[in-house]
Amino acid sequence: MKILNAFSPLDGSLIKEYNVASYKDLEIAFLRSRETFKLFSEMGIDKRIKLLKNLRKVIVLETDNIVNTICKATGKVKAEALMTEIFPVLSTISYYEKHLKNFLQGRRVSIPFLFTGLSAKTYLRPSGISLIISPWNFPFQLSMIPIISAICAGNSVILKPSEYTLSVGEMISNICQSAGFPTFLVQTIYGDGSTGSELISLHPDRILFTGSTNTGQKIMKQAAEFTIPVLLELGGKTPMIVFADADFNRAVNGIVYSSFCNSGQVCVATSRAYVEESIYERFTQAVAEKTKELTQGNILESDLGFLVFPSRTERLKELVKDATSKGGKVLCGNLSGKYFTPVVLSNVNEDMLVMKEETFGPILPIMSFSSTNEALRLANDSPYGLSASIWTKDKAKAEYLSSKLQAGNININDCLISVGIPSLPFGGMKASGIGRYHGFQGIEFFSDIVSTVRSKVNLPSSPAWFPYRKDLYSDFKQVLVFIYGSRRGFFKSFRSLIRLLLRSFRT
Ligand code: NAD
Fold first, then answer.
1. For position 125, what pLDDT does the model report?
2. 352 Cα: distance to centroid of ligand 1 (angstroms)
3. 230: Cβ–Cβ under 8 A, 6 or more apart, which residues?
4. Cα separations (Å) of 412 from 3, 14, 250?
5. Atom 17, ligand 1: which residue's CA is nearest?
6. Catalytic: 233?
7. pTM, to two decimals
8. pLDDT digit string (tens) for 12-38?
9. Separation of 506 CA from ligand 1 center, angstroms?
10. Which of 75, 239, 320, 338 could make an SS bond with 379 (beta carbons 3.0 to 4.6 A apart)?
């Protein structure tokens, strides 16, 4: 039997040994999930809302334990576990408690004039088994919010947490049990990428994957063999654009927070900044000074936690080395050892790897720009398109940039926050992913959308049905041209319309 060991980045201690699920285990999990789905999807929306309420209460009651488990598994500080893992989950649950009924109601849709006599609606139906594959950087919220969305849609769930944060995956199963979820409604499967791939081969009905672009592409390829709908939340290279007219202190504090929150291991972290040249020197110095104030070492009181993989430091150091070899200047920071200090780089240019590669660590490169269009070009010059932030007091300029930036989520005079608002669809463009979740879209993805049309009149026939005769063509054309074209020949078109409608009375 294959074993995976979960170690804590806090002190290197072994948290627990986990047995990797065999293929037989996966088949059993799928059988159980299918059976549970059949029962659960019939239980109705009130039952789902009841489970959400229970879940919310359990999480509130267990907050400290959940925070401790997350911190031990990831090395993050307690305040961040509370604010960026527990809070978004609770606010998502509360949002769906309020809106789920409305989202799942049949929606009447408008129909073309020529279909008078019909009414049309769309319905969301549960789609089946949802496979959630999650990463290690926010192991709780990036598993829970997809799970909650899938359950709201009436699905059963198989969760494959990251192999680096298995204890959080185990805790999620326990929380669901404590909330009174049907026994196999949410099952956690332990394993690495190969287990994830085996799970896909068992043909879930939906896959929500959060992780690297490279893995996302593999998953999409494999899912295509079985035409499984995928929602991919992938990597990012978030630009921050700071204009000279921005609130200086807010922008400085915002950039330090959004770059070094969770030690930079955030998909939407600011990982490249463009600052207007007239404030560039003053801004970079102020950012370096603020960054030097960040503390590390005590997960209750410090600002910075630890890197989940100390080995990642080697690549981060190479990025800094590449930048300095091309003229970049380290204003502060040192990435050696467990107790790193975040790096701020100035004199940066587009050719440096640190401006292109997803950093996923505590490095902030800051470059200057001279015009709005230059800032826009630089920001969009990336394979990624997850998020961006714009800092200016000029509303028109912010709106112009928002309309042109290639990013799924844009913050103006703020940072990171859009991902924390449960009603806002979240997701990326380009190599950052496909699809959106959160809000209505989160429920829609996990559902089959069914369209229904009902004839409100019980007449023997319909204008477009057989038999086709010469006059059908000329009458239909007359009406089409009137409605969609010239709007001339009202009486002729009206006569044609009546003749068409009378065809409904043919026996
Ligand atoms: P990863 O791609 O290495 O792994 C993510 C998950 O996929 C893990 O559970 C892993 O076991 C599984 N996996 C790996 N190979 C697989 C395969 N072939 N088939 C099925 N599953 C497979 O990513 P990571 O290192 O855990 O996370 C970091 C990455 O996630 C970064 O690129 C980051 O930007 C991205 N991320 C994106 C978002 C977002 O919302 N867009 C959020 C957080 C993290």
1. 97
2. 25
3. 206, 207, 208, 209, 219, 220, 223, 434, 435
4. 46, 43, 12
5. 193
6. yes
7. 0.96
8. 999 999 999 999 999 999 999 999 999
9. 61
10. 239
Every domain range in the chain assigned CATH 3.40.309.10: 238-419
> How do 363-369 and 341-346 pair as beta strands?
parallel
| Angle, CA of 493, 499 and 505, to the nearest 5° | 150
* 350 part of the active site: no
Ligand 1 atom with minimal separation from the 215 CA: 2
Q: Please determine, for residue 470, whether its predicted confidence score (pLDDT) is greater than 90.
A: no
Q: Give the CB-side neighbour count of residue 196, counting CA atoms within 13 A.
A: 23
- Residue 474: Cβ within 10 Å count: 12
pLDDT digits (tens, 9 = 90+) for 336-383: 888 899 999 999 999 999 999 999 999 999 999 999 999 999 999 999
How deeply is 12 buried, as exposed, middle or buried, from its count of CB atoms within 10 A (0-12, 13-18, 19+)? exposed
Where do the H-state alpha helices sit in 62-192?
A: 63-74, 78-81, 87-104, 141-152, 166-178
If 0-12 CB within 10 Å is exposed, 13-18 middle and 19+ buried, where does residue 199 land?
buried
Q: Which of 304-313, 433-442, 452-461, 492-501 has the lowest mean pLDDT?
A: 304-313
Residue in this structure with the two tokens 């991902």, named with its chain if needed: 419
- Ligand 1, atom 15, lies closest to the CA of 193
- Where does ligand 1 bind, in terms of residues with CB under 6 Å? 133-137, 142, 160, 162-163, 192-193, 196-197, 210-212, 215, 218-219, 233-236, 267, 358, 360, 386, 428, 433
- If one residue of 210, 268, 426 were mutated to test the ligand 1 pocket, choosing by the most ligand atoms within 8 A of its CB, it would be 210
- Active site residue: 71, 152, 261, 267, which one? 267
Q: Name the closest-CA residue to atom 42, ligand 1.
A: 267
Spacing, Cα 214 to ligand 1 middle (Å): 8
Looking at domain 238-419, its CATH superfamily turns out to be Aldehyde Dehydrogenase; Chain A, domain 2 (3.40.309.10)
> For residue 133, how far is its CA from the centre of ligand 1 (angstroms)?
8
Fold entry, domain 38-234+438-450: Aldehyde Dehydrogenase; Chain A, domain 1 (3.40.605)
Percent of the chain with pLDDT over 70: 100
pLDDT tens for each residue of 38-97: 999 999 999 999 999 999 999 999 999 999 999 999 999 999 999 999 999 999 999 999
Where exactly does CATH 3.40.605.10 map onto the chain? 38-234+438-450
Q: Pick the catalytic residue: 163, 233, 276, 357?
A: 233
Q: Positive or negative CA dihedral for 76, 79, 84, 86?
A: positive
**Tokens for 142?**
């990036």
Distance CA(502)–CA(492), nearest Å, equals 15
User: Per-residue pLDDT averaged across 466-494, rounded?
Assistant: 94
> From atom 31 of ligand 1, which residue's Cα is the shortest distance away?
212
